[in-house]
Design a protein that fits this description.
By secondary structure, the protein is α+β, with helices and mostly antiparallel strands. The protein folds into two domains: 71 residues, Glutaredoxin; 108 residues, Glutathione S-transferase Yfyf (Class Pi), Chain A, domain 2. Helix content is 52%, strand content 7%. It has a four-stranded mixed sheet, covered by helices on one side. The longest helix is centred in the middle third of the chain and has 28 residues. The model has no long low-confidence stretch (mean pLDDT 95). GO terms for molecular function: transferase activity. This is Glutathione S-transferase. One of its GO terms (cellular component) is cytoplasm.
């Protein structure tokens, strides 16, 4: 199995963590989706990472689809409940975490543009998305919808999203008044799967 992706992508990290937690052997192929010569488009016509190539040569792309494929392999530990509605609720929390990743990625790309070309209103809009998403996740933890001790697809996605916020210094005060989110990611960041997929410092 081959995983096509970038070491800095939180979406790729989500899939890498899943594969490591399940003990699935895979080869990582580092491709930068924003390079002028984009090798990712060979696997995903949209030129986005991650993409997964199975041992049979089948290609899957888009991280929620890849995550679903990995779960369908039936390899422990299960990261989604077997009951369909319960699984859908976890997928919705994954989608919320993915939305935080999207907003953070947009902010990083916007800030990379010349200052005179940056849209401050759009940057504010993306920061609000991140803040509202994190507030909602903290509330779910308070209500017991999520647990700081749980490893599943949603908590993996949440930790990858916050890891990216830390890595790119997006929303540096995210931890203020969100103690349960802090505890959740502290627990997950201690796992070997997260230690091995930490983005490079340089």
């Amino acid at each position: 199995m081959k995983l096509i992706g970038s070491y800095t992508s939180p979406f790729v990290r989500k899939i890498s963590v899943m594969l490591l937690e399940k003990g699935i052997t895979f080869e990582f192929i580092n491709e930068q989706p924003y390079n002028a010569i984009n090798g990712v488009a060979h696997y995903n016509p949209l030129g986005k990472v991650p993409a997964l190539i199975t041992d049979e040569g089948e290609v899957w792309f888009d991280s929620p689809i890849i995550a679903q494929y990995i779960e369908l392999l039936g390899i422990a530990p299960a990261l989604l409940p077997t009951e369909p509605v319960a699984a859908l609720k976890i997928r919705q929390l994954e989608a919320l975490a993915d939305g935080i990743m999207d907003a953070a990625l947009f902010s990083v790309r916007e800030l990379a543009r010349p200052v005179e070309q940056q849209s401050q209103s759009e940057l504010l809009r993306q920061r609000e998305k991140v803040s509202q998403g994190l507030d909602t996740l903290e509330r779910y933890l308070q209500e017991g919808t999520l647990s700081v001790e749980t490893l599943n697809l949603a908590t993996i996605a949440i930790a990858c999203a916050i890891g990216y916020l830390n890595f790119r210094h997006v929303s540096p005060g995210w931890c203020v008044n969100r103690p349960l989110l802090v505890k959740l990611v502290e627990n997950l960041f201690q796992r070997e799967s997260f230690a091995r997929t930490e983005p490079p410092k340089a």
